[in-house]
Amino acid sequence: MGTKAFNSKVLKEESRPSIVQRMENQERQKKFEQKQKEVEKEIRQEQREALKQGIRPKFVTNKEKSLRMAEDEWALIPDQHQRTIVHIDVDCFYAQVEMVRDPSLRDKPLGIKQKNLMVTSNYVARSMGVKKSMWIKDAVKILPNLVFVDGSDLTHYRQFSTEISAVAQSFTPNVERLGLDENYVDITDIVGDYISPEYSAIEGHVFGDKEEDRKVLGDPCGCGCLQRLTAGSHLAKKIRQQILETTGITCCAGVAHNKLLAKLVSGYYKPNQQTVVFPWQAHDVMESLKQARSIPGIGSTTFKILEDLNISTVQELQNASLSTLHTRFDEETSKRLKDLSYGIDEGLVRKSGKPQSIGLEDAFKKTSKQKSWDLTSQTHQPAKGRLKQKVKERKPQRLKPKALLNLM
DNA sequence: ATGGGTCCT
DNA sequence: AGGACCC
Q: Domain UmuC: where (predicted)?
């Protein structure tokens, strides 16, 4: 609980360098950002041109960017990859929760089932050849002594999930939940506390972890992202440690200057490990994906359209011309898709608040074309009851189940 | 796959 | 209200 371990490591006030340069003058700040955008647009345009000619666009450092902006006074603020983002991803979440609740399951191969599906399994099971999501009957074929726990009641998972987010929130309020087992944490505002010689080595893996990467790392950018992300790796470690201490749950983390890269990289070394990626490695990260579909933000519908356009790999998306994309997507989306393919993502970490809705859906077969459902009919009563129950559990006294039955 | 979720039109 | 995305 609390942040004791964290605070004890915090550096003395005067040795703490300030990271996010606060501009006193709003006007100046605005102009700077505007100029910055122009230059970035220019650069992106150039990179696309380069691609059209079959040349691989090179990473443009912030030093170079500042130089380009040098005719203006705003060029003096060199902060480019200003943010530091951590993506936290719990290892086989449901299975871990069950193992914490019943430690005797720890060393057994464990599968979590919902209906006929094994939705996840622990690492013991995985090491014995059981895949992530399989039909129960297939899983049992591979591993007859697989132990199953029913995971269709999500209440415990929700409890652990909010506890995990709460740990992250004890570091900074800027936490975005994604499903039950993932969190984005924007640590930009606190990462400065971890920039110091004490923390100058990178904690955990660097993307493309080879011995060289650790030593040869110069500072090709110069905006401070090297230091911030390095510090971020220590903060990520702290967060993971604290999650483990308070909940008994292990997780992976990815550290990057944007959400996309942080997420892509967090699962790179599993389980219970973490990975940092630097801006100049964005291309390598993206190249490590094959299908454009595996870019978060490109879902099945978008991917189908891309396939129509004969674009299915990340590289093909990188190479696609904006005008081609524009035939099927609006301008914003086209630009966004191309950005994603390069590992560019300006998306903000948005604070997750209280859940916006509590829902319950039953899938039932259509028997015939039906215009309206009879809500008073018996078939709906069970669902109605369960929903009431759910609301009761999760909203102890507030909110009456009044406008809740919004069927259709 | 299924059953929650969120955000954007 | 529907459709896109996410796990």
A: 85-299
Residues, chain A, total?
Answer: 408
Q: Which CA-bearing residue is nearest the C1' of B5?
A: A179
Question: CA-CA distance, A59 to A125, in Å (whole number)?
Answer: 42
Per-residue pLDDT at A46? 74
Instruction: Report if CB A62 to strand C is under 7 Å.
Output: no
pLDDT in tens, A171-220: 999 999 999 999 999 999 999 999 999 889 999 999 997 765 565 568 88
In which residue ranges of chain A is pLDDT below 70? 1-41, 43-44, 47-48, 50-59, 61-79, 211-217, 355-408
> Is the CB of A178 within 7 Å of strand C?
yes
DSSP-assigned letter for residue A297? T
**A289: buried, middle or exposed (CB in 10 Å: 19+, 13-18, 0-12)?**
middle
d(CA A216, CA A231): 18
A184 touches strand C (CB under 7 A): no
What SS3 class is residue A70?
Answer: coil
Q: Residue A25: which region, alpha, beta or left (left: phi > 0; alpha: psi -120 to 50)? A: beta
Å separating the CA of residue A359 from the C1' of nucleotide B2: 14
Domain architecture of chain A: domains with CATH = 21-78 (no CATH), 82-90+158-281 (3.30.70.270), 97-155 (3.40.1170.60), 289-347 (1.10.150.20)
pTM over 0.90: no
